[in-house]
Batch of 2 targets.
Target 1
Amino acid sequence: MYDFKFADIGDGIEEGKILEWKVKEGDQVKEGDTLVVVETDKVNAELPSPVSGKIAKVGKLEGQMIMVGETVVIIDDGKGGDLPKEEVKKEAPAKASQADVKATGSKATYDFKFADIGDGIEEGKILEWKVKEGDQVKEGDTLVVVETDKVNAELPSPVSGKIVKVGKKEGEMIKVGETVVLLDDGSGKYLSGVESKGEAVKEEGASVIGEIEVSSDLIESSSEVSAPKAPTRKKALATPVARNLAKKLGVDINLVPGSGANGRVMKEDIEAFANSNTKASTTKTPAVSIPKANVSRQGDVTVEAIPSIRKSIANAMTTSKSIIPDTVLMDEVVIDALVDLRKRAKPLAESKGVNLTYMAFVAKAVIIALQEFKVFNASFDHDKNEIIYKHFINLGFAVDTPAGLMVPNIKDADTLSIFELAKQIRELADRAIARKSQLAEIQNGTFTITNFGSVGVSYGTPVINYPEVGILGVGKISKKPVVVGNEIKIGNVLPLSIAVDHRIIDGADAGRFLLRVKELLANPELMLLG
Amino acid sequence: MATLNLIQAINQTLDQQLEKNPKVVVYGEDVGFEGGVFRATQGLQKKYGVARVFDTPIAESSIVGTAIGMAINGMKPVIEIQFDGFIFPAFNQIVTQLARTRNRSRGNWTTPVVIRIPAGGGIKGLEHHSESLETYLGHIPGIKVVMPSTPYDAKGLLTAAIYSDDPVIFLEPKRIYRSGKQEVPEEEYIIPIGKAKVLKEGNNLTVVAWGAQLREVNAAVKEVEEELNISVEVIDLRTISPIDSETIVESVKKTGRFLVVHEAMRTYGPGAELIALVNEKAFLYLEAPATRLTGFDIVIPLARGEHHHMINKDQIKAEIKKLVEF
């Protein structure tokens, strides 16, 4: 390589302007041929070639200034050597070092070479080609499976493009550095010759400042046809205030006829719509929303955030009371026979490690009644006007824990004996008190019993555990005067309170259910038959 | 049809217009010999000579000032300001001369200059190399401001800008210069300035974004649609000024919810303008507050902290969820 620099052509000339090139890159020139005409402030000078060879690179473009010492042309004089250093640098491939760029005719090709895939592997055997010549592949597609002495490696394609040539056949050995495939990546970035190689590299690696993400990911093609279409469904015109009101009242605002300007839905329209729907008794279950109360914090008070268990109790109770129009019935039953039975059975139970409580008997009586009165073991879907009957009984019972009320339930309680019920009640209650209940234990209950007798209360109006439809409150057993025949005797009296969802259970149904429970508790031997 | 990345599409457009229109000149810092710091003008000086594609001193005010003079005298300068943050020295020329000549001369003179500027962050740049200019430029009457998000749009909009009788500032999302390729027709075509593009139709929410930000928006929408079983309308604003209010308003009337996502600073940012538009023109259709997701009110951080500033896919997903469930 010969670097021909612009020299002082005499008379103190320091710079010139390139007027006209007589040669271009790639031309063969002989020593003495005119290369270029340079205009100086004194003369226009023709610069002759100092050597014979091929023009590898011109230093300046027509119209540009050239200073003494700058390169006019670089000539390949056949003596070898590289282009000046800075040029070489720019040619360094930006892509993986295993790749090289080669020109085969006008085809732009990418020579993908077999590289050391780790652990000093020097060669491999082509096991299976996943592609053949002419195939289109995407960057990352597996090209070939190569067996080495360590692993079978799948080689992914380094670029997207078309397979021009595969380097080895199946069964042949391939060494590090040998061509795996030649790929035509179609970008035209690797055109022929040394010079375009330089340019291609400049373009792909270009980022003078910062880091630019380079990728050949294909973006979906585009055109100028799409435009927003007219609204397909009717949308109500309304202010946010009106929309909020509709939401509160559980009204779909798009169904409300608007009386305002341009059919705007006014607040009054929404209220009227909600009212008319209530009359027609087709309202949906309204979402629970708690009106904002102005809770005074004045005076000598302390404010304490409640723990999450209390929050969920508050939510559950609010939900139940907001949704369920409940009704409560109360009565009492003389359980002398049950008291007697329990007394006799207790030693047997203890021998089996069971603490036989009245609760287990009440549970059994309720289970039998639930099997007979199926609507008490159901849920109600008001939106769809459907009753969901459950063919399983998960009997819940309220547990008074230090953290607050918990309601675990006994799964498939109808399959258990009274002893088993007693045992499960104890275990579930212990776990609840210790805050060790599993989520499953408190989910999916179908009916609940609450025992407020344990705190000395006889009657209450228990809150239904929504979406269940009934809850039985068990009061304190006490000795009371009872009339037997025409005489007054002392009897063991158990007070019961039942709350039901009046939407699907009428008072008479609740009375019949309660009557059956009373009957079973008064005559516990019937439970054997139930 | 060739698949080009955004910078190649710009290069092809400049090449085409230089060839077609002898009045077109292309210049700026490093634009000539180097072919531009991002190589947008690579090969053009060689092809068209130093009289038409040339380097300038580091003097943005004079780059714009000379372009104004050329434009008034019938040339079509397509100049480059090397980075967004370098526009400020030229601001006087832009605001007081470039944008006002038509008004000042009662329509007798125009200054049809195109200013190309690589804009926005995400490349771990230095200070002054990663800024968002939407508000600064969109506030100036008398110029149009454009920002494409795809190679196809870049060519169509740049061609339109070069054909414009008035000055156009062409913001190039430098972060996605080379991040993907798209089919770009060889022949010349125009995408009208001032027209947004509905990238994807939907019914539950309208998301507006532009430039590089759309990559995150598109990715977020794809995931959130599946997760929430909703459909989201995505609009590429494409022209920052004048705003295509019709496309946005009609979309919000259909979906009832509006989210604008931009990397630019929040306060007085482009999102504020778009929310005001939605509020004025589609108020009665809104089911959730018109909302913006934006960069912070700070100088965009340097490389190490930059990702905190950029709006990512997860943030967009969370905001969409919030609005749909409002």
Target 2
Amino acid sequence: MGTLLRAAWHIALKDVAIEWRTKTAFASGLVFAVLVLAVLFFSRDPTAVSSQDIAPGALWVTFTFAAMLGLNRAFLLEREMRALDGILLTPAPKSAIFWGKFGANLVFVGTIEAISLPLFVLFYDVPVWIRLGELVLVIAMATIAFVAVGTLLSAMAVRTRYAELMLPLLLLPFLVPPLVGGVQLTARLLEGRPLSDLGGWLRLIGAFDVAFVTLAALLFQVVLDE
Amino acid sequence: MPPSADVVLTATGIARRFAYRPVLVDVGLTLRRGEVLLLVGPNGAGKTTLLRVLAGLLQPSAGHVERLGAIGMVAHDAMLYPALTARENLRFFARLHGVDGRTRVDELLRQVGLANRADDRVGTFSRGMLQRVAIARALLHEPGLLLFDEPLSGLDAVASRTLVELLQTFQARGTAMIIVSHEMERLGRVATHMARIAAGRLGPVESLAGRSAAAVFADLMREDL
């Protein structure tokens, strides 16, 4: 276990260091997030649809598609000089690659979300700050589910010719449950309903977290084996 | 092969298919400490596939590989991260090997002649420099067996000579090596044995003791695989 955690830690640190240095996926994710929030805001008819009505959907569309940009890059950076083979030649357990990538992807997606949230408040004028802790919990829970399955599927997609196209196609069906849960919970929190009323949705997202993380970790080795 | 020193690798009955196409057919070999096998063959013969199976990067469809000790590999791709410096790349892989990174990394960078470029991103390196960093990466854990896939490919004459000298150093230390290459003359000075692979089948392994690589190659070409 110690070897696994140490290897996963080094792999995660390496990914974060590369992204910090290059900022390629981060910059594109952030620009994308700002564009989506702005376009959705300005595309509505303000006399017919209030900003609070479309806010939850806009937030989760932003998070989801900005996250996909980062998830795609997670294994593309291993493909450029086949660096992943270098890792596979070490004694590091293959599952450490999953946990390391998962951790780094959570940092990347979490950073995009943390920067997008104030922009979301700016555009949509929603009372986020009074429910901030609960909203962060909901965002974290949904993010864990789609980053886990996204990490697995990006490892699969990178081996195909059209990796950037394959990941969204493979990922979207798996995104539906945490995304629907995230949107519903966000909408109800912004309406002022207490978290205790939302137990059903929270349990649903929690179940998907456990299921997706477990399945992704178990299946990852199969994806890596050639 | 003469009896002797420790066996570092044994492969028996190795087969590998991609979809329904056989790429390796019943390949077997044994390599001992200090032996350097030069593997030649036409393009598409299965040389790279065989190296990847021996390294454990590919699972064979049949057969068994027994690796008695650590293996390092230098492939056509450098297996490095372009955005990281040479030192950062080597320290990362050293940590995964459980090796004390700082001392070993600095020593290897000196050995491959890149100490003055240690803090430059490998994405800015020439092909020859990348090969040297890749060799340093393969040596981090002091493997008993090194696998090389076309190590002189894309290198100029000076870089090729430097690399051949490095390989001679490893050979003198008793490191076993399997080298896939078309450069028989240059690498014939390092190799102790040669074998030919064609259409996925490995021919007999011939000793280079007292003979030129060209003469041994001519004999190997007479074998019907």
